[in-house]
Amino acid sequence: VMAADPSSRFATRTGASDAMLARNALAALDRDPLLRDVSLVVSIVDRQAVIGGAVPSPELAQRAEAVVRQATGVEVKNRCFIQSRPDPLIRAVADRLNPSARPSSQ
Question: Which residue has the higher pLDDT, 63 or 87?
Answer without folding.
Answer: 63
